Amino acid sequence: MHCCESMMAVSSLSCDQHKNEFECPDVLVSYNEKFDEYGLIIRDGGTAISLIKYCPYCGSSLPCSKRDLWFDALEKLGFDNPTEQNIPEEFLSGKWHHEKTF
After folding, report:
1. DSSP letter string, 23-64
2. Which of 8, 53, 57, 65 could make a disulfide contact with 37, Cβ separation 3.0–4.6 Å?
């Protein structure tokens, strides 16, 4: 899934002391499967990231964010506020863009 072993290591939560990646100082990069996007975690106490286009370890191009496509696909299905509506389950993960359900 990730471009290199270094990227896999820094974007995976394998910590028994923290509940999520934004709390763990060992996780440097966030990967959002739903939007197929990578970002550097901004340590401000929240869940902010700064999107990145290239792997900081191997230099590979990372996939373009599918965030806008996600909203567009759901709008075509009749969802005008998908963050507040009960959307199809495949849109809760990366399944929607892997299987092209839209």
Report:
1. T-TT--EEEETTTTEEEEEP-SSS--EEE-SB-TTT-PBPPP
2. 65
- Report residue 42 as tokens: 């901004």
Residue recorded with tokens 């839209």: 102
Edge-to-edge strand ranges of the sheet holding 37-41: 29-32, 37-41, 49-51
pLDDT at residue 34, as a whole number: 94
For tokens 């929240």, name the residue: 46
Residue 101 pLDDT class (50, 70, 90 cuts): low
Domain ranges of the chain: 5-51, 67-98
pTM over 0.70: yes
